Automatic annotation (TrEMBL):
CDD domains for this protein: SGNH_hydrolase_like_1
Segments traversing the membrane: none
PANTHER family associated with the record: GDSL-LIKE LIPASE/ACYLHYDROLASE, PUTATIVE (AFU_ORTHOLOGUE AFUA_2G00820)-RELATED (PTHR43784), GDSL-LIKE LIPASE_ACYLHYDROLASE, PUTATIVE (AFU_ORTHOLOGUE AFUA_2G00820)-RELATED (PTHR43784:SF2)
InterPro entries in the record: GDSL_Rv0518-like (IPR053140), SGNH_hydro (IPR013830), SGNH_hydro_sf (IPR036514)
Organism: Microbacterium sediminis
Protein name: GDSL family lipase
Chain segments annotated as coiled-coil in the UniProt record: none
Pfam family, one: Lipase_GDSL_2
Length: 249
């Protein structure tokens, strides 16, 4: 089994950092859970980089991922696009169609994910909700006649949308959220999963007053938009080539 993940911060694992500061996230957890559930080592790569829009993910990661000759590929994108003023949901959905086309051509099994819904904790919540609903509908319309595409749909999960599953920036899931997404992906793949991953105990989280939250998280995001920079600028993929994930005890 050779599994490669492409995407943005959602797939890179931002919000679920290990003690040394490295992001883990749902895709890493899927790789480990897959090995544990089958009792066999798998090869795993993760080319995702935070801050990427959907089409730049496809243009910079897809062919590199397919060049690794995977058996399985997962893709999610569009979360960053939805925060831009002139986001085009059909254009974003075209990126999903392109990934499916190339996976078909290369004989790779595709897993499509929708992101978790952060709208309840963010400014412009109603706009983000509408755009997420529209993107989900547009993508599902592209694969409605494709039962072979593995679906892990997180956007409709109302439990996952609640604060205990989110990091202090309210835009990225915490470890609890990433485990729930990993459980959904493994279930969709037909792999046995540790039932506790669906709802880990909630960890204590500091509450930031409105002003402190804006200073710590919203203003830096606005600065990046004004300066046309990205949180992913200069970053490399954390697993650009295969790493072997063995079953854990």
């Amino acid at each position: 089994m050779r599994y490669v993940a492409i995407g943005d911060s959602f797939t890179e694992g931002v919000g679920d950092e290990l003690e040394d500061g490295r992001p883990r996230g749902w895709a890493d957890l899927v790789a480990q859970g897959w090995a544990n559930g089958t009792g066999q080592a798998i090869e795993y790569a993760n080319l995702a980089i935070r801050g990427k829009l959907a089409w730049p993910v496809v243009e910079s990661q897809l062919e590199a991922a397919l060049a690794l000759r995977p058996t399985h590929l997962s893709f999610n994108g569009g979360g960053n696009d939805m925060l831009r003023p002139r986001a085009d949901m059909e254009r974003i959905a075209d990126a999903f169609s392109r990934v499916l086309q190339r996976c078909d051509e290369e004989g790779v099994t595709l897993t499509l994910l929708s992101g978790a819904n952060p709208s309840a904790g963010l400014p412009m919540a109603s706009l983000i909700q509408r755009r997420g609903d529209a993107l989900s509908a547009a993508v599902l319309a592209r694969i409605e006649d494709r039962p072979d595409v593995v679906r892990a749909l997180n956007w409709p999960d109302r439990v996952l949308a609640t604060p205990p599953f989110w990091s202090p920036d309210r835009l990225h899931m915490n470890a609890r959220g990433h485990h729930r997404v990993a459980a959904r992906v493994l279930e969709a793949l037909g792999v046995p999963v540790d039932a506790s991953w669906w709802d880990l105990p909630a960890a204590p989280a500091p509450h930031l007053p409105r002003g402190a939250y804006y200073r710590a998280h919203v203003l830096p995001w606005l600065k990046r938009r004004i300066t046309r920079t990205s949180s992913g600028d200069g970053r490399a993929a954390k697993f650009a080539d295969w790493v072997t994930i063995a079953p854990s005890a």
